[in-house]
Structure formats: structure tokens, C-alpha cells
Amino acid sequence: MNRAIRRLTLASVLAVALAACGGEADVPEEQTGTGEGTITLSEFPDRPYWGDTHLHTDNSIDAFGFGVRLGPEAALRFASGEEVEATTGGKAKLARPLDFLVIADHSDGLGATRRLYDAPRWYVKWVIGDDTMLRWYDMMHESPEQSVRAVAELVTAAANNELPAALRDQSNREETTRDIWATHLSILDRYNKPGKFTALAGFEWTLMPDGNNLHRVVMFRDGRDKTETVLPFPGLSTTAEQLWDYLAAYEQNTGGRALAIPHNSNVSNGLMFEMTMPDGSPMTAEYAMKRAAYEPVVEATQIKGDSESHPFLSPNDEMAGFGVKGWELGNLPLTAPMKDDMFAGSYVREALKRGLSLEQQLGVNPYAFGMVGSTDSHTSLATSDEDNFWGKHTGNEPAYKDRAVVPQNLGTSQGRFGWHYLAGGYAAAWARGNTRAEIFDAFARREVYATTGPRMSVRVFGGFDFDAQDWDGDWVRKGYASGVPMGGELTDKGTAPRFMISALKDPDGANLDRVQVVKGWLDASGQTQERVYDAVWSDMATRVRSGGKVPAVGDTVNRKNATFTNTIGATELRTVWTDPDYTPGQRAFYYVRVIEIPTPRWTLFDAVRFGITLSKEAMDDAVAQERAYTSPIWLKLAKRPAAPTVMERK
Amino acid sequence: MRLPGWTREPLVHFLVAGFALFALLTWSSSGEVDPASRVISVDHAQQAELALQFQRMMGRAPTDAELATAIDRFVRDEVLYREALRLGLDQGDAVVRRRLVTKMDLSASAAAEAAEPDEAVLRAFYETHRARYADAGAVSFDQLYFASESAARAALPGLAATGDWQRAGDPISLPQSLEQVSQQEVQTRLGEVFAAGLDRLQPGTTWQGPLRSGFGWHLVRLRARGSGAAPAFETIRQQVENDWRSAEIAARKERAFTVLREAYRVEIAQ
Predict the structure, then answer these.
(1) DSSP labels for A16-59?
(2) A-chain residues within 8 Å CB-CB of B16?
């Protein structure tokens, strides 16, 4: 009976596929391009626009296998504030819609599992004729659990370069990929509304040598006229340099712009931010230049953990190590454990420091990047708040009530559990308006920041003549006029740089504990150094620093019912901070980390809502201090030939 | 000759083509194992498959003993799987049930995802749903922030008297004036609590409040609120089409369901 139903369903799907006749949608012109000239822009970027640059839909080979049945259209409706029905049931709607979205489906096997699943079994058996694919086909149809297992095998096969030829061979599938890409781009245009909601084209490039995660999200500035001239670039059998060449060729041929955002360096086993070329030879200036040109921003936090810092690398940073548990054990499928010498190449702060050192050697900094957060959700639902975590993928949507305590895929046997997942982050972009061009350009000039979910407004200007009186006037104007915003560069003038920093809490979220400045520099002997400064914090009169430390802010979280109160912490923290340890002639970077008061994590909400019991370890981790990381401001040496930078690329 | 109207119904095409393919697939896949059968055959191809699975997992070929274990496990799983089907355990499984329901729904809605509605259809949809497009009321207002409610109350009477209102209130990085902004924009900048409070105020030239927000308290001068009328069809055609499509998908699911539903008699005990 089961099988009969299945065949009937397949038949119906095919029948409607045959019956469906597509046509060119008549989308208003202002929705189809970069959005330039379509809306009035503010004089300066006047508010952060909120988005997710890393969302998977049913076109992703693994997301579909994990069970998601919502496609790009549902993803766009949800992100822009409409209600959708989730795959496992239940209506889902964002209380606060997003301003922009990049759907980043895997380029490898784009739409492949969906097509495999929808195909009749005889087709897989006789026409494709691949036993592995037939087995995966059967597993996907057997049960959700088997389907998740099939995808876990698929990810492992991809990591070990053992994918069936039918999935690996791009030329074989070029036609279908082109169809999916074209359809996708036309859906984006339908939802891209300048001034209201921006839908940017993109995909995920999934290079993973031996399971070491080197994934990037590619994001385009342009409309369909340009993006349709290329296909998503395959990751499994290419290199990062080939990806940059692909992006360069795209820009050359179309006059458009594109960039790549590396993510999950935390499961790269040290390969994401190496001091050398991928083959171990010394890094060349050409390689560093290409990387700097095409990778201005890194995704520092997402569901699969946070990559900002690790206690192993930053033992003096008492707030290092947010969201590293589980992920720190090894590479993506946990086929190889993380060794001590791999940490440095896996975390963002260390990479920023390495960049200074490489710049000294090569004259160009390959790791001069800003930071964003995103979800990497595989449910088509861009949720990032702790109280609305819809799961990493459909196999752990809220319908699976014990998802926090059971092992999940990706290296589970060695100790990764549901509670290691974070609820995901968001990207904030300081732009003059909400269009493809404005959002993309904010990324390109690194005027963006990461949050682990909350929407705090964080503003940073670096300069030499700011002081506390500036708060009384139009300080934003002053910031832009006599300084640089986050992502910018200052040239050493022989005096200590000053930073005008304002952090405003999420209006619907938790108060702020403190604002910190993270400084990295190259000392006189060429060694990289770092220091974390508490720049301003709540209740400074009573929380007096002692022994160099600011006392903890406190904890109002009620573990029984997953609530907290804003009776501690601050609404806004502002300061003009001067580097007290400035030494002339040193390369340095400064970024701001904003810390909220403790709040419940999604695991505590799950425990309360579903009545499940968390292990002691998971319970200890069920309350956390959410945070924001801004893009750095770099202090460059004077009197050097200007190194090529992202902004000068065009 | 003119064909009767029902022959042009997509649903009819859908059902006819579906049954044709069903017949074809039933015929073509007759080699599949019948769950009702009491014979489990582990042929050489199946054994090779099991050996391959082992190899993929462990990175080497299985020994004879390991292959025998794998075959035993396969047989065990197959026995339990068929018995589960005989017992109808798949019927009571909420996850399996949900999965099948979703697949049926998807097959009904796939056509709507690619369909091109004509102008008249969209205009009719727009007219029916005018209220939904009614501009929730773009607002223009000034606001002053106070950390405490008492300070806000104390400041209120003085505001009318002095023109220099910009200097009142506590410092915070929020805009003091916003022009013609949407409900969503108010919510993004000042939060849900404030947006709800603002919604209850009447426009005018006086200062009102204090209104609560996630930041503290605000005195507000709501200078204007939009008409609340729906924008012209032409200006939001794409949005209407997106909404029509989404509604059409839901409707087609419902229609396909209704056809199937008619074949059932449902008895609900009182």
C-alpha cells in the first residue's frame, strides 16, 4: 500500500510537471537590477539593515535530503515577513521581518536530491544505473530518519571525494542546473523590492578536502541580466583560487560585482586561514591580493558554532569561546580531530592577526576582512532568535521534541549533540537604503557586523580627534567627516587612535553588559599580540574594576521557565575610547565586541516547552551572553606604498 | 467540435496523466519486493551492496564473518520492516503520515508555482484583498526618550511652552524625528512595544505619552498618519502576484483535497 501511494505521488508530480507551462514573469523593472536610482538614499548610512546571507532551501542537495519541502519562494516570503507553513507542520512567521536575504544553496548537486527523489525508481535503477544513488533514493523514500542518514552518507562521501559520478559530473547536469538557476533568479526578482526587501543572488561553494570545511557563500550585486550569464561554481573538485578566478571572470565579462564569504572556519582543522598556500609553499602576494579582493567579509557565527575566538588561543579573554563546544573537536564530519596547531588557522581573531604578519611579509593583507553572522539554516526559514529556533535542518525542526539532547548528524559518534547547535546569527549592514547595490557595497567596504541573533545597533568610528563632547552634537556626521566607520582604515599619525563607539540594545531584547575593544597588533619583534579591553559597561559606578577585571553583570535567568528580566545591564553604552597602549609604528586592528546580559538559549526554551531534561553539561550551557562583533578598523603604517584594498578594486 | 468545459480543467489533466503514469510505473516496477511476501532473497547483487556499504563505512572490504553479520542484520531489518507493514505500524506513525501528506499537497501545488496569471485575475484578487494592501498607516512623528517614567511625566507639561524641545529628554542613539515611515520601520527602530503604543495615539500637534519601549519611556508628537488606503494596483502589481500565487497554491491544495475528500464518508461519533 505504501509503495502504491508512493508511486501515485510520483506519478502525480510528473504529471503536473508536464502540465505546468512556464512563462516570463512581467516583473517591474526597478526590481530586476541593482536598485541604483530606484529609491532616495539617506546622506549617511543611518541604520543597520538586517539580513541572513546563508540560507538553504529544497534546492540544496543536503537540505532536501534532510526533509525540507519549502523552496526559495517560501524562504523569501518568510524572510520578508509573510506567514508560511513549515515542512513538519506548524505556521511560522517572523515577528520582525528581515531586510535582506541571500539564498545560498549548494552549487554542487544543485537540485539533485530533489530531482532524484522525484524521479521514478526505474529511472534511477536503469537510466542512472548507480547503485549508491539507488540506495540513497530508497533511503530517502523509506523514512525521515533514513533520509537524514542518506544525507549524512552523502556529506561524508562528498568529504571523501567519493560521490557517485552522476552527482559529481557538472557537464552532465548543466542543463538542469541552468533551469534551476534561471527559475531561482526570476523568483528573486519577484520578491526584490527596493526600499523594502532585498533579495540578492548567491550560492554556496562547498570545498571540503578530507572533510575540512572551506565553504564560502558567493553573493552577487547584480540583477538577472548579469547573474544569468553564469552558473553556480562547483566546489567539490575546484580550488579557492579557481573560485576567485571565476568571480574575476564574472566581473570582467558582465561589469558586475561579486564576493565570497568564508564560513565555519571552526571546522576547517586549521585550513581556512593558513600562513601558507594550500600546498604548504610560502604564500604569494598574488594569492593574498586575490583573497583580499574577493573575500572582504567572513561569517563569524552561525548555527554550526561561533568562530570569533577560542580560549586555547586567547587564554586571557574570559569571554572567548562562545559557541565553540562540540565544534572544536575536529573537522566537519569529524573524520579528523582538531590538533593544537590547527586552532590558529580556524578562528577569526587569530586570522586577523596572521593577516598583519603576512602583510608585513608580502605588502598585502589577505585576511583584512569584516565580520557578519548568518544562519546556515537548511529549513528555508531564516530564524536566528533563541525563542524561535526552527532547527539546523528539517530533521531537527521543533516537531522533534528531543532534538536538543539527541546526537545529531556530522560526527555524532564522537560527541556532537543537538545542544551544540547555536540558534544562528544575523548580518547587519550599514547602508544608505535597502537595495542590492547598497547592501552589497556595505559588505564590499566592510561596513557590516555580526550578531549571534539579537539586533543591537552598533556604531564605531575610528579617528584621531574625537572626544566626549562629540556626543552632544551630530556625532555621526563628525564620525564620517573626520574618521572612518567600521571596516575602514586609518593611517598611523604618531598619536593614539580614538574610537567613537555606540551600542544600543535590541529594542525587543536584552540589556547590554559591556562593550569591549579587541586589539590585535604586530610587536617590534614581528610577533602577533592581542588584548581585550573593557571600554564601557553598565553601572560603572558600582561595578568597579578590580584586579583589571570588571565584575560580572549578574544573571536574572529563571531556569524553570526560561525567562529573564532587564533589571540589570544598560540600554545604551557609549564611549570615546583611546588606545592606552598605542605604540607608534605598529600595525594593528581594533574591533568591538558587544556583550548582552545572560539570557536563555534555545535549549532552555526547548526544555521548558517540551518538558525534556537536559544533561548537566547541556544545562550548564543553556544560558549564554549573546553578542555582536563589528568589522575591525585597521591602523596602517604611514609611508608605505598603498596596498591594494577591497575598495580600490574597481 | 467543442469539448466540454471539464476537459480544460488542469485538475482533470492532472488526474488523468497521474493515473496513466501510475499504471505505467506499477507495471514497470513489478520487480520490487512485495511486502506481503514471506520470502526474503539475498541475492548476489544484494550481498555485493552490503559489502559495499561496509566498505564505505569502514574503508575496507568486509571479512567473510563480517559480511555474514551484515547479511544477518539485513535479514533481521527486512523481517521487522515487513512485519511492521503487516501490523500497519506505518499507519500510526505521525512522522510517516505527515511526510505522505506533504507529498500529496506538493503534487497538487506544483503547477501553481509556475503559472502565469492574467491581469484580470490579479485585479480581481487585488479588489478582494484591498484591506490587506491598505497602507498600515505611514507615520511622521517626533519622539523624546526618558530613562524613567517619572522624568517623562515631569517633562510633558513644559514641552508645549518651549519651542526648544530637541534638547529635552535623555541622550540615546535614536532618531528624534521620522518622516513617512512604515509600521515595520517603526518596529525595527523602536521595537514592538513602542510600535503598538504609537498605534493607539491620535495624530495632532501636541505631545503625548509617555509610551513605553524596550529602551524606556518616550514622549511623542504624532504629526501625521497615512490615509490607510490601498496603493493603486499598478504600483504593487508584483506584490499582488506573489500573494495570488501563494493563495493559489493553498487553494489548489484545497481543491485537490476536496475531490479526494468526496470519495470518503466521515463518521464522527457524537
Answers:
(1) HHHH---------GGGTS--TTTSPPPSS--EEEEEEEEE--TT
(2) 15
Residue B133, helix vs strand vs coil: helix
> Is the pLDDT assigned to residue A24 strictly greater than 50?
no
pTM for this structure?
0.81
pLDDT in tens, A348-396: 999 999 999 999 999 999 999 999 999 999 999 999 888 889 888 887 8
Residue A572 CA to its chain's centroid (Å): 26
Sketch the domain layout of chain B as residue ranges. 135-225
Instruction: Please determine, for the modelled complex, whether the ipTM score is greater than 0.85.
Output: no
Q: What average pLDDT does the segment A481-490 reach? A: 97
The DSSP result for A126-179, as a single string, is III--HHHHHHHHHHHH-HHHHHHHHHHHHHHHHTT---HHHH-HHHHHHHHHH
Cβ count within 10 A of residue A362: 18
Domain boundaries, chain A: 44-441, 455-641
Whether A580 has its CB under 8 Å from any CB of chain B: the answer is: no
- SS3 at position A503: strand
Contact yes or no for A87 and B241 at CB 8 A: no
- Separation CA A645–CA A632 (nearest Å): 14
Which one is predicted more confidently, A89 or A599? Answer: A599
Query: Would you call B189 and A47 a contact, using CB atoms and an 8 Å cutoff?
Result: yes
- The CA distance from A64 to A227, in Å, is 24
Q: Are B17 and A15 within 8 A, CB to CB?
A: yes
CA distance A549 to A561: 31
Say if residue B96's pLDDT is above 70.
no
Residue B253 touches chain A, beta carbons under 8 Å: no
User: ω into residue A600 within 30 of 0, thus cis?
Assistant: no
CA dist., res. A643 & res. A285, Å (int): 11
Alpha helices by DSSP H, listed for A533-629, are 602-610, 616-620
Kindly give, in sequence order, each residue whose CB lies less than 8 Å from that of residue A25, ignoring residues fewer than 6 positions away. Answer: A186, A189, A190, B116, B241
User: What was the pLDDT predicted at B15?
Assistant: 60
Cα angle at B181 between B176 and B185, to 5 degrees?
A: 85
Instruction: For residue B78, give the C-alpha cell.
Output: 527486512
Q: Does B181 touch chain A (CB under 8 A)?
A: no
Residues found in chain A: 650
* CATH fit for domain B135-225, picks 3.40.50.970, 3.30.1490.190, 1.20.1090.10, 3.10.50.40: 3.10.50.40
For residue B243, CA distances in Å to A76, A138, A140, B132, B231 come to: 12, 36, 32, 10, 15
pLDDT for res B234: 87
pLDDT digits (tens, 9 = 90+) for B132-179: 787 667 899 999 999 999 999 999 988 876 677 888 899 999 999 999
The predicted structure's pLDDT at residue B36: 67
Which residue in A16, A69, A475 has the most chain B C-beta atoms within 10 A of its own C-beta, making it the best mutation to test that interface? A16
In degrees rounded to 5, what are phi and psi of residue B24? -60, -45
Q: Dihedral of the CA atoms B82, B87, B92, B96 (nearest 10)?
A: 10
Residue A598 DSSP one-character state: P
Backbone angles phi, psi at A106, to 5 degrees: -60, 130
CA distances (Å), origin A420, targets A382, A405, A523, A600 = 19, 9, 36, 14
Three-state secondary structure call for residue A350: helix
Residue A615 Cα to chain centre, angstroms: 29
**Residues of A numbered 86-105 whose beta carbons fall under 8 angstroms of chain B's beta carbons: which are they?**
87-89, 95-97, 99
